[in-house]
Each structure stands twice: as structure tokens, then as C-alpha cells.
């Protein structure tokens, strides 16, 4: 006897939980099927850059325990001589700090931020609401339209090099492109800078925030919201395939053989894993299947979690900041070249998330964890954990004197496969599949690689519409 | 990169005028002597032609039957080993990507022989079914024997010529592993052997062929035969649907609709191909003048009703003939239409010329004289 639901969500994590909560909230009987025995987000990732504010509001995540230990991490750029340039929301402080780096860049940075913030907000129609980019672009002013056109073909490195003088500033700003998975020298990676400027955390545009308890804290809040909405959560349920009856999606079959009936299925897996791994072969055109078989990415991002016994001396100013360690734009290029050739880069680009002192102190009661994202690393056999831990440890020590880690945990690297086409696509293109009733709602359905939950919200909205249409028939 | 066929040593020797052409990245003699004489010999005697340029791929694996059922527009899985059929493969949108002969070699092994390469499509489809798609184009040499005396020549070679059309048989022939097949549109036979044995095969056929006044035929003569048979060729008369969701060209507009089996379920692009309603038709044009350029507009009462495709002078019909795609309304045999030929080297002004529509084929393939 099989269980019946209105919709099934494959895969837990932020996207899956968000989708199932929204579906349940809209009155659908929804079930979440997660392979792992616990529902958790990606380990190690402490900061959020692109969490969907509407998702937070609709699900009332604050009521369900989502708290932030830092709402807006300032971007800190270490300079030679142990000094810091800090780019914060305080315009005057930022100008003072930048002036020491390059007086010319003070005005250039202010102009850049103004121009980008406005255009980025206009692009939210595409990146938040899912309208195709061509439609959004048609509403822009001519000057903005030109800038957008330029961004879609320019590399972040070229774009920044033409605007700023200081190497350190260029390298620090280029990190936004790297965080979306782009190499800053890739054509079109400048668009990723705009994408990150369009994001909002805790009501602040372009902010990077740290939830209390990391992404785990967010997942806990989402789980609570899902349960409150009446969704069924089933960890430890591995989906083996989708079932089809009478030419229609019927539901899923679990590895244990159990059948779950659901006419709507939302998958957090990638398009390829969903369609090739789960859907019956005959349901997809050979051409569509071929399009799924793009060469797999060769570079990605690694996350290292250092366990610290004592609070390092954050140089007084380092707390409550994210520190990007990248000397020049060439640093990226050299590192990406090595990673693409399958070598461990000798000097990768690092981002350290340093929480505010009180959060650090809270954590220290157990053990202070410092999480470092490393871009780029080669994937597959070329990925060498020990070499990476040594390289990164030495690099951090150079910038934070007295840094001594008691332990270092290297998490498996995540592949990055960004594309300009994906950034410019409408939500329908990313979410819908050739199989009616099967929708994608995971990170792969987002315009860029980030924890966001926006695709989940859009997919859930579409699923609810489909459900109502089906009910009327 | 230009490739030479395994017969290159022999064809280069026989190619007196040193005129070459390209097929599927292979260099081949355009003609050995007089193209008209070669085409005529194929009608009344026998010619041998190098067909090693044809793209061939072996499909092997446990799920090959599922693959060929999904890939091709006719049910190749129903063939017995040693049998073959002509079929198309379509894009998701129902457009023709390619046409070829699918031959069953064994229980789980099929071979595709086609005039144009489509390796990316076939191999990615094969990968979906865990089937290996091995390109054997350069591993084997192929020699076509065309003409009424082809059967007699095969018998004179000491091979059993009693073979149905669209069938193949393997022989160990005087210490040479050969495959004899009958896939060609012009009737006749094909002999396939390993690449390293190619010159030996050529010499044996040439020696046995002396009794039948056998000639080697170049690509111009082969094109003449194709055109007289009304066979559209990919790359020359149409471009295969390159993108996945493209709905053109339609099989019905290329006179290939017979290669789609409506009873065969589940092949790629089926629903789109079945729903498509072609409004153009592939016909022959018999021209009153010289050969028009490809894609010359064809007019009826001053309005464009279609375009020509490849065209040639047919030595047997003693006039220029062309394939053309015309609107249904003007495609009936006997319709008189006009074409404007552009000014040429020795003609000052564009010439207006007439042509009449002819049902295809212009000429049926030559009947084989029983061996």
C-alpha cells in the first residue's frame, strides 16, 4: 500500500526544506525525502550571501529560531605591514580606509557602488522574481542597458582593472565573482559581481551575514517551519526512480521498494542527476539528454574548518569581518590556471569568516571553529587534502600572527559550473523539465551557486499553481 | 585534416587527370577518365567505386536493441542477423538529422552506414544506454560494384552472389575476410574488407572485372547516379537538424517519409514527426538549359514556388537535371516552371530558362542481370 501526497520533494538541505514548507503552508500534503539520516545543510559554510528575504518572511523563520550573529560582515583586505583596508557600510569610514590605499579609488569606489546598486536592484526582477533577463533589460534606461550588455561579455578582472587603481582593491572585489563559481578572468564573470550586488541579507543590499549556528542554524529553523506547516519529513529515504503511469508522473519509488504517490515532484538534485538518474530514459528526447552531458567541471571550492583552542589575536580590527586574501588580480589567474591543469594552486584565494567577538566567545565554550573558503581547487584525484591544509595554514599565519590551529578539517570540494547563460535565464528555464509535473528546486536551479532558497520558492509557487489547476479538472 | 581512403594508392594511380573532391573529410577522385563514360558504364556494364568514405559506426552492448529502437525511425531490433534496413534518425523536434542503413551483425551488434557523420549524436545516445559506439570508418575499406553486370562480376570473383537486397554475408574468400552487402540505392553490391587488405581487394576486382569492361567510377559519376535515383544527400541537398529541438528538415519534404514507420513506437522525435505537415515536396526538374547553381529560385507566373538543389548533366537523359523543393501546388509532374540563371563568364545577361517537373526517380536503378 503506497502513501499518497500532493507533492514530494527530493533532497533535504535549505532548498528542499524551503520547498516542502512552502508547499505545506499552501495547503498541499507534502513530503520531503532525504537520503541522509539527518536533515542538515552543507557543512562548514558559515556565511550567507543570497538567502531569499521573501522566503524568510513567508515562512516566518525568525519565529522559528533563525538568528544572526552578524548581519553585515565588512570586507577586510590585508595590506603589507599588517594594516587593513576595511570596506564597510559606513561610507565615510570606507573612504578614509581606502584613501590610505589609493586616493583615486575613493571616488571611483563610491561611483562604482552607486551605479552597481541601482542596476542590481533593477535586475532583481530576473534574479528574484524569475523574469527572463531580456524582459528585464528592455525596461532599463539606455545607459544601464549598455552597462548590462558590457557586463555580460566582460570578465570581472577586466572590468575592475578599468575602474580601479589599487591591486588589493581589485582583487578583493573580484572575490564576489569567485564566490559564484566564476574565475574572474572568465568572460561574463563581471555579471556575477552584479548578481552578488543584487542580493540582500537582513535587509541590507550586498551584505554577507552569519546565522547563529552557521547554515545548520538556518536548517534547524527551516525544519521547525516545515513541521509547523504540517509537512512530512522523511530522512533516510533514498529515491531510486520516478514512476510514470498512464503517461503521467505518478510518484517515486524508494530504494527500499516502497512506492510514494505524488503527481508533483520537486527535486533539489541537478538537472542531469534528476533526469538521467531518476527519470525513465524514454521520457527525455535524445537531444535533451545530450545537452545534459556537458563536460563536468574541473575546478571547485574547498572549505577548511580550523578548530582553535584559543581566540587568535584578530589584530584588534579583524573581528566581525570577512577577510579576502588575494594579493592581485593575477593571483586568481595563476591559481585558476593551476587548478584547471589539475594541480593544487600554490597560492589560492582565501576568504576567512571572522565572527564578532561575542559570537566567538560563545563558541569557544566548546571549540572555536574558523571556516575558510578556498578558491579554486582541482577536482578528482588531483585534490590533495594535506597539501591544501598546509598551504592554507601557512597563508593564514602570514596574515594573522599567532594563528595556531588545533585541528583542521578539509571538507570535500564542491564543483563550480557557473555560466552567463544561467545568470541570464528566467526561472521557468531553470525550474521546468521536459516531464510535466517534475520541477527542479535546488542550487542547480539558481542563477548562480549560492544558498538561497529562491528557486525553491519559485518552484513551490509553480507547483501550487499546477496543483490547483489539477484540482479544478 | 584530409584523410585518404585505404584504396588511395590505387585510385591515385588511376586518377589520370589528378582531379579530386572531398566526401566526409576523405579525398576521392572526382573522375578517373570521362565522368559521362563512367556513369554510362554503370547503366550498361559495371563500375567499381570507392565507398570507404561512408561513415560507419558499430553499436555494441547489452542494451543495443533498446538503443536502435529509440534512435531509428524503423524497428531495427526486429531484424535478423545479416539483414539491414534504411532508416532516419530525428532530432527531438522531429527534424531529420541523418539517413543511413542499419545492419544487424549479431545478437547485440548493429552497424550504421551513413553518408554524413553524426558522431556526437549517436555516441551520446549510445552512452545513455551503456552501449559502445565505435567508429569503424577507417578500419574497413568499402568497394561498391554497380551496374547490370555487378552480379556476374561477383560470381566471377568466386563469391556467392545470391544475396537479397538489404542483406549482408561474411566470407573467408581466398584468405581474405570480406563482407558482401547490398545496401546501395543504385542496386549492385558492396564488398568490405579490412583497411590493410584494400589494395588486394581492388586488384582482384580489377582483374576479374576486365572481362566485363569494369571501370573505376569517380564521385561525379556517383553523384550522377544518386541524382538520377532522386536520392537527397546530407550536406549537399539538406542540412541535418543540428540543434536538438529543430523541426526541420522534414522527412516528407525530402522524399524520405517512407523511411518513417508509423507503427514503430518510441523512436526519438516521433510525436513531432507524426504531427508535422510538410507543404513542400522534393521533385525532379528536367531543364531546357545548362545546369543551374544550387538554390536557384524556381518561379511560376513570376512568383517563387521553390528552389533547386543539386543538379548535373545526365548523359543518359541527355539534358541537365536537378533536384528541387517545390510548393505542393506546383509539384505535379509535367508542370512548366521558369528559372533565372545568373550571368556567367560567357553570358552577358541573366538568362530565363524553362524546366518541367518530373516525378522521382528520373531513372530506376539498373536491373541486375542474374549471375
Fold and architecture overview:
- The complex is a heterodimer of chains A (473) and B (371).
- Chain A has 473 residues and is an alpha/beta fold.
- Chain A folds into 3 domains: 3-41 and 52-67 and 213-294 and 419-472, 3-Layer(bba) Sandwich (FAD/NAD(P)-binding domain); 91-205, no CATH class; 295-415, no CATH class.
- Helix content of chain A is 41%, strand content 20%.
- Chain A is built from 19 helices and 21 strands.
- In chain A, the strands form 5 sheets. In chain A, strands 5, 6, 15, 16, 17, 18, 19 and 20 form an 8-stranded mixed β-sheet that branches.
- In chain A, β5 and β6 form a beta hairpin.
- The longest helix of chain A has 20 residues, at 103-122.
- Chain A is globular, with a radius of gyration of 22 Å.
- The two termini of chain A are 26 Å apart.
- The relative contact order of chain A is 0.19.
- The model of chain A has no long low-confidence stretch (mean pLDDT 87).
- Chain B is α+β, with helices and mostly antiparallel strands.
- Among the domains of chain B are: 3-54 and 138-216, Probable tRNA modification gtpase trme, domain 1 (Gyrase A, domain 2); 279-358, Aminomethyltransferase beta-barrel domains (Elongation Factor Tu (Ef-tu), domain 3).
- Helix content of chain B is 19%, strand content 33%.
- Chain B has helices at residues 8-14, 35-44, 64-71, 119-128, 150-156, 198-209, 219-229, 270-275, and strands spanning 3-4, 20-23, 26-29, 47-50, 55-60, 84-90, 96-106, 109-114, 132-135, 140-146, 168-173, 176-181, 189-194, 215-216, 280-287, 297-300, 303-314, 319-327, 336-341, 351-358.
- In chain B, the strands form 4 sheets. Chain B has a 6-stranded mixed β-sheet with strand order 11-12-13-10-4-14, with helices on both faces.
- In chain B, α2 packs across α7.
- The longest helix of chain B is centred in the middle third of the chain and has 12 residues, at 198-209.
- Chain B is globular, with a radius of gyration of 21 Å.
- In chain B, 47% of the residues are buried.
- The mean pLDDT of chain B is 91.
- Chains A and B meet through α13 of A and α4 of B.
